[in-house]
């Protein structure tokens, strides 16, 4: 099990690339030592790295390499996101994709060629660094493809798959053999009209990434201390496995955090411990990467209120109670045996396995969500299988499933 954090710089947030200061970055990374983490995930801002369609700035690539090297010197492996894209409610898109140059991010041939070239440049820059884990195509890039985004770039599921395959191929060409993947926010699992599907997440790339945020209706419906709130991350991990072709495909809990007021600060340590304990009971989890390292400087304007206080450390680099709770979880997890297979599975009928038009049943409050949570709250450790595979003896055996229960 790997434990890491999404690195949010203390000085300037992700705008720090404009005033790159390696000493400040080193101080940030040093402050993480208390937490005993083994990796970070970092976020180049796409418009700053590729301000023109045919220009990827060499100085920006050099600064990226310096950050990765600084992390490696401190024993931290580094995962790098590419197309940022979207971060903490803000969109960062190059000028050559907007307004007078408005083009579809996923289907325009000039845009997609430039995206592939940019990802290839990032990968090539880092390919020979031993602490480089791999690229994520971008942070929740699926949010640009459909509502509730105010200006979406529409596409169909086959278009989304073609785009993902091309971007992942560019990553692999630049840094062969690294763990390249893509990441969607949870609408991909919960909305049957969304063009990015569970099959895309669970079948493309080296790992399945899930982002667990209980402000999606879970904490509002079940309360900050409700069983479903503490189990939400584990639920997404197990839900994702239903679509995977590989029965042992690794799942990365790439984002999870304790957002106030949905999880009040005084309850954040308990939420953290409950969440981590539940995920540690899921087989085939590659790692847990908390959002985020440091609080956002409150002098920066216009963030949603919950974004300011998500750090494990304060903006002046002091560990918070939630950070101390995660550190305890990390220490307590050492030497524990791998989780046993989940021998009972709940059958999920979301319609066609490729497009899953019935995904709404998986969302908080949906019939499948409720059924899984009832079983889990009773200690039953449910896995998830698609109804179409519920009778495949070889597949079930490969996952260690001995009993399939239907709704």
Write structural notes for this entry:
By secondary structure, the protein is α/β, with parallel strands linked by helices. Helices cover 34% and strands 13% of the residues. The protein has two domains: 2-333, Glycosidases (TIM Barrel, Alpha-Beta Barrel), CATH 3.20.20; 344-405, no CATH class. Helix 10 links the parallel strand 8 and strand 9. The chain starts with a strand and ends with a strand.
Features:
13 helices; 3-stranded parallel sheet; TIM Barrel; 407 residues; 12 strands; alpha/beta; 34% helix; 2 domains; single chain; GH
Number of helices: 13
Cross-sheet strand order for the largest sheet: 6-3-2-1-9-8-7
CATH architecture of the largest domain: Alpha-Beta Barrel
- Give the low-confidence spans: none
CATH topology of the largest domain: TIM Barrel
Rg is 20 Å
CATH superfamily of the largest domain: Glycosidases
Please give the CATH class of the largest domain: Alpha Beta
Query: Would you tell me the structural class of the helices and strands?
Result: alpha/beta
Number of strands: 12
Shape: globular
Tally of separate domains: 2
Overall pLDDT level = 97
N→C terminal distance = 32 Å
Helical residues, percent: 25-40%
Order of H and E elements = EHEHHEEEHEHHHEHHEHEHEHEHE
Major sheet characteristics: 7 strands, parallel
Task: Tell me the fraction of residues in β-strands, as a range.
Answer: 5-15%
């Amino acid at each position: 099990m790997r434990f890491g954090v999404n690195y949010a710089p203390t000085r300037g947030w992700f705008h720090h690339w404009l005033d790159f200061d390696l000493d400040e970055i080193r101080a940030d990374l040093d402050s993480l030592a208390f937490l005993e983490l083994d990796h970070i995930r970092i976020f180049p801002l796409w418009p700053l790295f590729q301000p023109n369609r045919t220009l990827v700035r060499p100085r920006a690539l050099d600064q990226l390499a310096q950050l990765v090297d600084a992390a490696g010197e401190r024993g931290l492996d580094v995962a790098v996101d590419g197309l940022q894209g979207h971060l903490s409610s803000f969109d960062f898109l190059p000028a050559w994709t907007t307004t007078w140059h408005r083009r579809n991010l996923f289907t325009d041939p000039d845009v997609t060629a430039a995206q592939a070239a940019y990802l290839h440049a990032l990968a090539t820059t880092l390919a020979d660094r031993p602490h480089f884990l791999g690229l994520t195509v971008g942070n929740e890039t699926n949010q640009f493809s459909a509502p509730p985004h105010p200006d979406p770039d529409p596409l169909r599921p086959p278009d989304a798959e073609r785009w993902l395959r091309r971007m992942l191929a560019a990553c692999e060409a630049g840094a062969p053999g690294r763990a390249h993947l893509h990441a969607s926010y949870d609408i991909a699992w919960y909305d049957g009209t969304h063009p990015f599907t569970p099959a895309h997440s669970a079948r493309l790339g080296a790992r399945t990434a899930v982002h667990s945020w209980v402000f999606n209706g879970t904490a509002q419906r079940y309360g900050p201390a409700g069983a479903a709130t503490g189990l939400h991350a584990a639920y997404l991990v197990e839900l994702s496995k239903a679509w995977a072709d590989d029965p042992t495909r690794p799942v990365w809990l790439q984002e999870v955090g304790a957002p106030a007021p949905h999880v009040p600060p005084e309850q954040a340590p308990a939420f953290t411990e409950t969440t981590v304990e539940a995920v540690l009971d899921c087989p085939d989890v590659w790692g847990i990467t908390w959002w985020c390292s440091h609080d956002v400087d409150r002098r920066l304007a216009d963030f949603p209120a919950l974004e300011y206080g998500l750090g494990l450390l304060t903006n002046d680099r002091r560990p918070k109670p939630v950070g101390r709770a995660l550190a305890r979880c990390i220490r307590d997890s050492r030497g524990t045996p791998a989780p046993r297979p989940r021998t009972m599975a709940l059958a999920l009928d979301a319609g066609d396995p490729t497009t899953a038009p019935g995904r709404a049943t998986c969302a908080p409050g949906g019939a499948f969500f409720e059924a899984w949570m009832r079983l889990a709250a009773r200690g039953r450790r449910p896995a998830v299988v698609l109804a179409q595979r519920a009778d495949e003896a070889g597949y079930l055996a490969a996952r260690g499933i001995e009993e399939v229960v239907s709704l």
